[in-house]
Write a structure and sequence with these properties.
D-Maltodextrin-Binding Protein, domain 2, Arc Repressor Mutant, subunit A, two-stranded antiparallel sheet, ten-stranded mixed β-sheet, single chain, alpha/beta, 11 helices
C-alpha cells in the first residue's frame, strides 16, 4: 500500500526545506515551530525515512530529503491545481486561463497583455502564476498553467515553444558608472569590472557564452543572486553592472538604470510562448495564445 500523507505535512516539509528553519517555516505557514516539527515527524514516519538532519541550531536536508523535495513540490502543485479547479467549477468560472511567467515577465509584460485581452474577451479571466524560469515546464505538465511566457530554453519534447521576438542582452548600470558614457559596451571592456547576475540568466546565457570567448580574462560575475531584482539593485547602487534581455527594460528603469548594448558579439535571447503538447488545448486558450502572438508581434 502506498504511504498516506497529507498536504499539511508536505507543506510543512517544503517550507522548512526552503526556509532552512522550523521557526521561519512556522512564520510562513502561520503555525508554531513545534507544530511544523510535529507535521514533519509524522511525514517521516509515514514515508519511512528521515528528511532532515537536526541539530540544536539548524536543520539540513538528508540525501533522501533532497531526493524527495522536488517530488513533494510537484505533488503540492497538483493539489493546488485541483483545489483551484474545484473552486472554479463551484463558482461556474469556466473561462479562467492561467499563464505561468518568471518575475520580470509577470510584472512588466503580462499585465498589459491581460488588460488588452480583457477588452476583447471580457468574460475570460487570465490569471498569472509567478514561477521561476526553471519551473515553467513543470507548471504546464502538471496542468497548473495553460500557457507559459518567458525566455527561450530547452524544455523537453513534451513542451512546444514558439518564439515571439528577439531580445538582445543588454548591460544595466548606474548613470554614474563609467559605462554610462559609452554608446555601446564590448565584452572585452568587462575586464576588471564588477558585475552581478541572476542565477538562471547566468547559467543559461552569460556563463556558457563567456567560456567560449577568446579573451585573456574570465567573464565571471562577482556574485550570482537568485532574483534579478537584487542584481538590478546592486547596479543601481553603482556597486557594479548587470545584464538581462532587453525586454526587461520596463522593469530595470524603475531603478533609474542606464541601458547599453553589449557587442562583439551580441547575445540574442527570445521571448517565448510555451504549451504542453500532451494536453488538448481548449478553444479559449487557443484564442489567448493567438492574441499574445499578435500582441507581441503586431506586424
Amino acid at each position: 500500500m502506498a504511504p498516506r500523507f497529507t498536504t499539511r505535512q508536505l507543506s510543512a516539509f517544503i517550507a522548512a526545506a526552503e526556509q532552512g528553519s522550523f521557526t521561519l517555516a512556522a512564520g510562513r505557514l502561520h503555525l508554531t515551530p513545534s507544530a511544523v516539527s510535529n507535521l514533519i515527524s509524522e511525514l517521516e514516519q509515514v514515508i519511512g525515512f528521515s528528511l532532515f538532519e537536526r541539530t540544536t541550531r539548524k536543520i539540513a536536508l538528508t540525501a533522501q530529503g533532497r531526493q524527495f523535495l522536488p517530488v513533494a513540490i510537484s505533488v503540492q502543485h497538483r493539489f493546488t491545481t485541483a483545489a483551484v479547479a474545484a473552486a472554479d467549477i463551484a463558482n461556474q468560472s469556466v473561462d479562467v486561463i492561467r499563464v505561468a511567467a518568471p518575475q520580470a515577465v509577470a510584472a512588466m509584460l503580462l499585465p498589459s497583455i491581460i488588460a488588452a485581452y480583457r477588452e476583447v474577451e471580457p468574460r475570460t479571466e487570465v490569471r498569472v502564476i509567478d514561477t521561476g524560469v526553471e519551473w515553467m515546464a513543470e507548471r504546464l505538465r502538471s496542468g497548473e498553467a495553460d500557457l507559459a511566457l518567458g525566455p527561450d530554453r530547452t524544455e523537453g519534447g513534451d513542451i512546444a515553444a514558439t518564439r515571439l521576438y528577439a531580445s538582445p542582452w543588454v548591460l544595466w548600470c548606474s548613470p554614474d558608472h563609467a559605462f554610462a558614457a559609452k554608446s555601446v559596451v564590448k565584452w572585452s571592456d568587462l575586464a576588471g569590472v564588477d558585475f552581478f547576475m541572476a542565477g538562471r540568466d547566468h547559467e543559461h546565457s552569460v556563463g556558457p557564452f563567456g567560456a567560449t570567448l577568446n579573451h585573456d580574462f574570465v567573464i565571471a560575475p562577482k556574485q550570482v543572486f537568485d532574483n534579478m531584482t537584487t542584481a538590478l539593485g546592486m547596479a543601481a547602487a553603482n556597486l557594479g553592472v548587470t545584464f538581462s534581455p532587453q525586454y526587461v527594460e520596463p522593469f530595470a528603469i524603475c531603478w533609474g538604470l542606464t541601458m547599453r548594448r553589449v557587442v562583439e558579439p551580441e547575445i540574442i535571447r527570445y521571448l517565448t510562448l510555451y504549451e504542453s503538447i500532451d494536453r488538448v488545448m481548449p478553444e479559449k486558450v487557443i484564442r489567448l495564445r493567438a492574441f499574445i502572438q499578435k500582441h507581441m508581434n503586431p506586424e
